[in-house]
Specification:
It is a single chain. The two termini are about 30 Å apart. Helix content is about 35%, strand content about 15%. Strands 3-2-1-4-5-7-6 form a 7-stranded mixed beta sheet. By secondary structure, it is an alpha/beta fold. It has a single domain, classed as 3-Layer(aba) Sandwich (Rossmann fold). It is built from 13 helices and 7 strands. The structure holds S-adenosylmethionine.
Length: about 300
């Protein structure tokens, strides 16, 4: 099996206290799971969704499960909550993903959504529209932890282990064939920046080749300038994970395959009001893409 950065490097944490160190002396569930650097980043969005709204109340995602999960994990996340830019980005993107999901299921009430690299996020709490279906998928070691904490809620929900760097994941996850009349929604949140550029291209290409017409993929992206800079991020740095992929232009995403369309691009700077929008406009000619943003890709037929 090809080794991904997530699997290869298990660098010791750079901070004196490991990310999510247990409260007290007893090793918590998270420590016992012994996640490698990239999977261990799942604690960052979990902490932001559980406790971040106190800093950004207008972005409160009203996560009904994250707080309890943190408690059961027994993790100290105070250092993560001190990293306000990251907390802001997680809450902002969560809203963007929720909005995209609700719009998709309003148009496809019986459709299927899949959270690729779901970590411990429970998006179906917001996106259950009564007749739609949901799949949560992540690396097997993460799904083993998830199953102890988040059992599936009913017959319209399922979970699966997957490594997105291994081609054929579409079929292995049992996602519908290209000929299906029912489009699929994929969300991939806080995941692809940890893969190599060629691996991200392969993930996008597999989506483009396999997905039924009308399918959507919502993903978050970093500017290419952020690649290699994870050590300077107060939340990601201590995990030892690295940012390996970023974009120069959002148009690169759709350029991967002729069936792909870039339907929407959003910049987290928008969440900061006019000052953010002005700064984004200032940086854009140099960066070519948002510092951090969300893209919605669509699959259309008749082109390949
Ligand atoms: C920062 S966490 C984000 C978790 C979740 N999407 C959220 O927003 O709460 C990154 C997640 O990507 C997952 N991931 C990284 N590489 C992956 C791969 N090759 N296949 C599947 N999942 C992967 C990790 O295991 C981890 O759960």
């Amino acid at each position: 099996m090809q080794q991904t950065p997530a699997r290869r490097r298990a660098r010791p944490p750079r901070s004196p206290a490991p990310l999510g160190a247990p409260v007290g002396d007893t090793p918590g569930l998270l420590q016992r799971a012994q996640l490698l650097p990239v999977p261990s980043t799942l604690l960052i969005p979990l902490a932001a969704r559980a406790r971040g709204a106190r800093y950004f109340p207008w972005l409160d995602c009203r996560d009904a499960v994250a707080g309890e999960l943190l408690q059961r994990l027994g993790a100290d996340v105070n250092a993560l909550l001190d990293d306000l830019p990251t907390v802001f980005q997680v809450l902002w993107r969560t809203r963007a993903f929720k909005d995209a999901g609700r719009a998709f299921f309003a148009a496809h009430p019986q459709g299927l959504g899949a959270n690729l690299g779901c970590g411990l996020a429970q998006h179906f709490q917001w996106l259950d529209a009564g007749a739609n279906q949901w799949l949560d998928a992540d690396l097997p070691e993460v799904m083993a932890l998830r199953q102890q904490l988040l059992p599936v809620l009913g017959p319209r929900m399922r979970q699966a282990g997957v490594d997105l760097t291994q081609p054929g994941w579409w079929q292995r996850l049992g996602l519908p064939p290209r000929s299906s009349a029912q489009p699929v929604l994929l969300v991939c949140e806080g995941v692809l920046m940890y893969l190599q550029p060629a691996q991200v291209q392969a993930v996008l290409a597999e989506f483009a080749q396999r997905a039924p017409c009308g399918s959507r993929m919502v993903l978050d992206v970093l500017t290419r300038q952020a690649v290699g800079s994870a050590a300077r991020n107060p939340s990601v740095g201590p995990t030892g994970a690295e940012f390996c992929w970023g974009v120069c232009r959002m148009a690169e995403l759709a350029a991967v395959h002729p069936r792909l369309r870039l339907l929407r691009e959003q910049s987290a700077a928008e969440g900061c009001g006019w000052a953010g929008i002005a700064l984004d406009a200032l940086w854009r000619p140099w960066l070519g893409a948002p510092v951090y943003g969300v893209a919605t890709l669509g699959v259309e037929d008749g082109f390949a």
